[in-house]
Design goal:
36% helix; 12 helices; 390 residues; alpha+beta; 5-stranded antiparallel beta sheet; 26% strand
């Protein structure tokens, strides 16, 4: 009864966090390593974020990243059939109990990995994409290095403990991998599933990420646990157009993992906001083009990504637009036409280029002659009308 009451109290605390979002400081978390970032990599909080620890099944975010990259590049299709090997079928821990020779679509395999953290499905997908598990693990490590991960070594695609070998990574590296995975929007269709089925409805899947129901705005991403790694998660939540990634490694229990993630995310949502480069409804218009086949060219922002600000500063933002009155043809799409400067109490915070939205070619001799002829005809017509009083 005491354990039940303690668990209920912990859930209530998480729910209270998600409702009030009033935290101004995170404080020390129980995790061995932790980090809070925006989805474009801005760090809002960190604690021992560069120390390497085993991530358990959070390893699978790299497995899912390589899978999504293969799908989006056309190398494989979600409709592809994957056949489970004897090796894949012998995986323990969380699984969908694949049998040797059993066939399942990549779509169902990926869903099983994302929702139920299926270790057997992760190996089956790895063998399908890499040709062998070892080759796929090499791909995982190469991709981690390319992303700038400095404390990560993968030894398998699922994060299970192995004899003599152990996957190690850092909270910062997992945030980097999560940021890259989130560039593939479809992954959220999997990680946000609460319950589903495979095998034509015969086998149920329940999401291991219970924060989907406990935290307002939670949309994924992946939990993990082994006795060696402790409780881990890379969690993604979104509110008011701001998406945050919170990672913890080595939590002592589920309640600590949930409460620390809630505290970190609440800190981000309570203290920061996204500011758009242009005010709502504001347009840049166009710039006149001299000697162009068009009289003007439409202007647009080269980068319209909103910027992260402390909420206290967001209300004091002003925008100064500096735009050329006219330019000479030819104009190439992307040519600089001006700048938007964001100021806070007169101090510059951000500067973004305004560029041409399209190309405008310069008039040739024939176009110039045609325009001149048109001008002379119009002038003669106007003179005739003045003489006749028409």
């Amino acid at each position: 009864m005491k354990r039940l009451f303690a668990a209920a109290a912990a859930v209530f605390c998480v729910l209270a966090f998600s409702i009030t979002a009033s935290a101004v400081e995170v404080g020390e978390v129980s995790a061995k390593g932790a980090i809070l970032t925006t989805d474009d990599g801005q760090v809002l909080f960190e604690q021992n974020a560069d120390a390497s620890y085993p991530p358990a099944s959070v390893t699978k975010i790299m497995t899912m990243l390589l899978t999504m990259e293969a799908v989006d590049s056309g190398k494989v299709s979600l409709e592809d059939t994957i056949t489970a090997s004897a090796h894949a079928a012998e995986m323990g821990g969380s699984q969908i109990y694949l049998k040797e020779g059993e066939q399942m679509s990549l779509d169902d395999m990926l869903k099983s990995i994302a929702v139920a953290s299926a270790n057997d499905a992760a190996v089956a997908v790895a063998e399908h994409l890499g040709g062998s598990e070892a080759a796929f693990v090499s791909m995982m490590n190469d991709r981690a290095a390319a992303l700038g991960c400095t404390g990560t070594t993968f030894v398998n695609p699922n994060g299970l403990d192995t004899d003599g070998e152990e996957t190690k990574t850092t909270a910062r590296d997992l945030a980097l991998i999560s940021q890259e995975l989130l560039k593939h929007d479809k992954i959220l269709e999997y990680t946000s599933i609460w319950m589903d089925t495979v095998r034509n409805g015969e086998f149920g899947l329940a999401n291991t990420n219970k924060m989907l129901k406990l935290y307002d705005g939670m949309i994924g991403l992946k939990t993990g646990y082994t006795s060696t790694a402790g409780y881990c998660i890379s969690a993604v939540a979104e509110r008011d157009g701001m998406r945050l990634i919170a990672v913890v490694l080595g939590e002592p229990d589920k309640d600590s993992r949930n409460s620390d993630i809630a505290a970190m995310l609440n800190y981000g949502f309570a203290n920061y906001a996204m500011a758009e480069i242009l005010e709502e409804g504001q347009e840049l218009g166009s710039v006149a083009v001299e000697m162009g086949l068009q009289d003007s060219v439409a202007a647009e922002l080269k980068d319209d990504t909103a910027i992260l600000l402390e909420k206290a500063a967001a209300d004091g933002i002003t925008r100064e637009i500096k735009l050329e009155s006219r330019v000479q043809a030819p104009v190439q799409a992307g040519d600089k036409l001006g700048e938007v400067i964001l100021l806070n109490d007169g101090e510059e915070m951000e500067r973004r280029e305004i560029v041409a939205a399209e190309s405008v070619e310069r008039k040739g001799v024939s176009e110039i002659f045609r325009d001149l002829l048109s001008y002379l005809v119009m002038k003669k017509q106007m003179s005739w009308e003045n003489l006749t009083g028409l």
